[in-house]
Amino acid sequence: MKKEIAAAVCCLKALLAPRARLDPEKTDLFLERLSVALMEKFSGHWFPENPSRGQAYRCIRINEVQQWDPEVLRACRESRIQMSQLELPVNLTLWVDPGEVCYRIGENNPPFSFATFSNPDEETLNTSPGLDSAGLLVKLQGQWLPQIQEQHSNS
């Protein structure tokens, strides 16, 4: 679950990075608080043997019609960021499932697979012992930030 949440947070960072007018410390605090909120929410709703079970519960939605995702709101509040400062894409859906993180921008567009993991019930990547979620996020950013930024610069 840790690596999928780190990938989801990395995906959100990539989506807000080119647009958001936030200082880096506030951005990092927001992402840290969001990671904690998602870990708490997904605990007890994570089923590696059946990844689609609980998928709607683990879906993060940001759009004009529905209220923003409660964990995103909580992370904003705890990091003293206004929602409008994030400037995330309108109609963003992010699915965080065992083994895969996907996202979609817009209601009629296909989803992009942002990250896949071959062993969804394994909690760590092949990294040094004791790697915490912040260390995992740094490792994943180097791998996926360029990928997502390239996808959206071409669209």
Automatic annotation (TrEMBL):
Residues 1-108 form the Anti-proliferative protein domain. It holds the Pfam family BTG. SMART domains: btg1. Belongs to the BTG family. PANTHER family: B-CELL TRANSLOCATION GENE, PROTEIN BTG3. It comes from the Eukaryota. This is Protein BTG3 BTG family member 3. GO terms for cellular component: cytoplasm; nucleus.
